[in-house]
Amino acid sequence: MDLYQPETIHVNGEKFRVYLTHEEIQQRIKQLGNQISKDLKDKRPIFIGVLNGAYIFLADLMRYVSIPCEVDFLKLSSYGDEKVSSGQVQDLKEINAHIKGRHVILVEDIIDTGLSMKYLVEKLKRLEPASLSVATMLHKTEATKHEVQIDYVGFKIPNLFVLGYGLDYAQEGRNLAQIYILEE
Ligand code: IMP
Ligand code: MG
Asked: Range of 172's domain?
């Protein structure tokens, strides 16, 4: 069976088309992995993935990182099944790792308004890591209202709803191998 990557897909009654292909995504993640390997050489970083959306990006990113590293996860909820943010962030799962004095890389699928990331950066900084950097596969630059410093960005994208490659719409579409954008 091949990767699941149709040209278009209907989810929740709306039509999406391919925006970033599997090859484009892999090429870019390879560059990010190489950069992180250089920047954090000898630092044994710990990646903290934000569930659910970041799990596929993180899985691929870590395999392009060629230095010793660790991983842990936390889970937030803010969207429900809608296409726009509820404007509220809720903790659904905490990390188990001790990050005091560690070099932490927070890994998100997408930064939209920036609310989730701002919340997470403030939350993890209180645990006194040696350094904290932020990696996101996608950044909706025009939508970002909360100021966040982003160290590693896969792709800057327009302010339109996307899915696939870990990102869902009403929990569907995460298994798509490419990134799809809503047809206007
Ligand atoms: P923010 O707090 O507004 O930056 O929203 C970040 C979170 O909303 C991400 O972690 C995603 O889970 C979700 N999200 C934002 N935009 C999209 C999208 O276009 N498709 C799927 N999920 C999205
Ligand atoms: Mg998310």
From this structure: 8-78+91-182
